[in-house]
Amino acid sequence: MLLLYAVLFVQLNLLQVGKASSYKADPRNTTEVVRDFTRPRGKILSADGQVIAESVPSDDRYKFTRQYPLGELFAHTAGYFSLTYGASGVERVQNDVLSGQTNRQKLKGLGSLFSTKVSVGDVTTTMRADIQAVARDALGEREGSVVALDIRTGAVLAMWSWPSFDPNTIATHDLAAADAARKALLADTERKPLLANAFQERYMPGSTFKVVTSTAALENGMPVDRAFAVERSYIPPLTTNPINNYGGSLCGGTFLEVFRQSCNTPFARLGVELGAEKMVAKTKDFGIGEKVPIDLPGAAASFFGDVKDFERDDPRLAQSSFGQNAVTITPLHMAMLAATIANKGKMMTPYVVAETHDADGTTLSKHEPTVWKTPMSEETSATLTQAMILVANAGTARCCLKLAGGEQAAAKTGTAQLRAPGDPLGPLSHAWITTFAPADAPRIAVAVMVKASPEVTAGTGGTVAGPVARQVLEAALAAVP
Length: 481
Prior knowledge:
Blueprint: H1 2-18, H2 20-25, H3 31-37, E1 44-45, E2 51-57, E3 64-67, H4 75-78, E4 81-82, E5 86-87, H5 89-93, H6 95-98, H7 103-110, E6 122-125, H8 129-139, E7 144-150, E8 156-162, H9 168-171, H10 175-187, H11 197-200, H12 210-219, E9 227-231, E10 233-234, E11 243-244, E12 251-254, H13 255-261, H14 265-285, H15 314-320, H16 331-342, E13 347-348, E14 353-357, E15 363-366, E16 371-373, H17 378-394, E17 410-419, E18 428-437, E19 444-450, H18 454-457, H19 461-479
Parallel strand pairs: 1-6
Antiparallel strand pairs: 1-2, 2-3, 4-5, 6-14, 7-8, 7-19, 9-12, 10-11, 13-16, 14-15, 17-18, 18-19
């Protein structure tokens, strides 16, 4: 009997203590969710004071239901809180604060045992509803993503992807309706509306990636006044297939000129000249290959490849060096590239949670900005800023980045060719732009990716993504001092 009691004692401690974390994390375990549905939950707020999520009384046994007054606007970042499916986004990563389960909140609750006040907490995000709405309206119902960052801190001001979804349909206590809504969203496997495409999906970047190859070349000693051959195509070693400039155009000149025109051949040549080791090393300096450390779950890692991927494959290295072949990047990471150039070579860690507070308004946590990477020198940053100003004023973005108030923008566009013009199925391209402003004292960086469609392919990164970026830049510059 003593032995049996000992075994029981050990097993109870193993279940209640040793395996507590794994049971808590198991998505099938809704015990905590049920507990939290029977009491209030704190609010999620935008930086401009809009309520993104709140708990309101319900007339069923769960007592409270989670509501999202702004609907789809913040679905991919705030997430949802569902009795059946648990939590996602900020609802998930800040669950302890929102439900009053942090150690500080529990300790404070012990001092008010006879109070009827529930010790929940509120989360204030860095994102502004006004800028987010502009991003949504500017993109419209074209598939794609828009990201706006505060260059100086890494704060995410807006992060919108279409298609989105209404989290109210999943948070409802009508379990059959919630299940039907989620299944319908999951069934859309092509557009993936539940996926936060801005940071959880990656896409071929096309010529926007030339900022990385430019950095690699400049940091390895390429003079700014280097001249490239004026040519229509370039044949890399180990192949007879040429790499052409966009539209088969004749292109060349100094570095600043080929950057302004977004010639392909010079950047393909640069990649081969630098070699795989230097190119791969510079992509790693930018964090490509790592998950971006944003304070949201499920961030994807952008991709360039390792040195071994380019062994005896100069054609692949040449194509990759101007953002084609297997290179992919998330829209968030692309915005971070522009922000790094604007921030004198320092890449800030992106974040969406600014502060958390308890029920009395006492600050529980406040984000302190940090540098994630430093992939370039201030000198290289200044050179690339000059090059991107040329793109905005007289290059591939000249159509669309004349900002209100005369503010100067800097930009790089991209038209990522998924299918070339000669493909039997016809051409197909993503449209990109990454930009920042004001160029002389940068505050805001924006990246826009519009997913390939016949309408998008008929234009370029500048003509399709540029007008979206301009509207978001103007809104952010007006709202953020």
